[in-house]
Amino acid sequence: MIISLKAVNLLFVAGIKKKFTCPGLGLFYTLFSAFLFSVASLFLKKIEDVHSVEISAFRCVFQMAFVLPGLIYYKTGFLGPKGKRVFLFFRGFLGSAAMILLYYAFQIMPLADATVITFSSPVFTSLLAWIFLKEKYSFWDLLFTLFTITGVVLIARPPFLFGSNVTGIEGSYRNHLKGTIAAVASAVSSASTFVILRKMGKSVHYFLSVWYYAVIGLIECIVVLIVLNEWTLPYCGTDRVLLILIGLLGLGGQIFLTKALQIEKAGPVAIMKTMDVVFAFILQILFLNHLPTWWTVGGALCVIASSSGTAIRKWQKNSKKVKENEI
Questions:
Q1: pTM for the whole structure
Q2: Longest Cα pair distance anywhere in the chain, in angstroms?
Q3: Distance CA 229, CA 85 (A)
Q4: Which of 98, 154, 233, 242 is the most exposed place for a label (fewest CB within 10 A)?
Q5: Whole-angstrom distance, CA of residue 154 vs CA of residue 164
Q6: How do residues 140-158 score in pLDDT, each as one tens digit?
Q7: Contact 220/98 with Cβ under 8 angstroms?
Q8: Among the listed residues 37, 2, 13, the one whose alpha carbon sits nearest the alpha carbon of residue 255
């Protein structure tokens, strides 16, 4: 069999690329992204006398400043395709609502508790995709949903199940319950955002999606701050530095997560992203002097098991489809 010189060159180049490919780089990016997000959450807990909605507004301003050059460079425009603008609006509204609710939960309940609850998002995504996109919802999906609900209940510890003396919370139980509801609502809003992005597909540029998220989020924050009359100028010094760092760390976390998804399969990335919970527990113990209860640890295991299970099943399904297409 005669092999052409061109084929030999192609094989040689492929061999070089394979040789210099760094295995696990995508997972390292995911791990680093999880660390950046966790540190940003810790800084949020350290800020005093600044409402979570105002912090969200600063985050939106940072995103707008960094995304704007990308929109100009790629010439995407600022409104997007006419048929996709409604989806972009709801993506921006629900995505920013998820951020605001998550920041509120971080401020009034333990860091690890809020982080764990938000990891129920993949389970809600499967449920909403079944309702709105008519995707298959299997017995395993139902089982993972029940596991997630169990985990949230263990973290929330409602008095009618656990009695009136609830330990291991920050402040009053009322605030703990409000934080739990906000974290669950954040997870549902985030899941809705994923369903909308799946509906839009790849027809809309990533920068445009983030632009809507930042602009609508900023408008949303301003309206809420006016209604609540909670706008305050951050104190000079530590608070302003922390606000800048939250914006930079949040942006860095998104960049590294996007890079991870570009070079690694979604399943392993979703599993590695559960390190968010581990980092949250470590930072909470080291810097906030708050030891998690066994109820929280049990709830975390339930939620991580369900979100990881959902990611693994999705990964297996996609791998199976790829093999079938190759055949």
A1: 0.80
A2: 81
A3: 31
A4: 233
A5: 14
A6: 888 888 888 888 888 877 7
A7: no
A8: 37
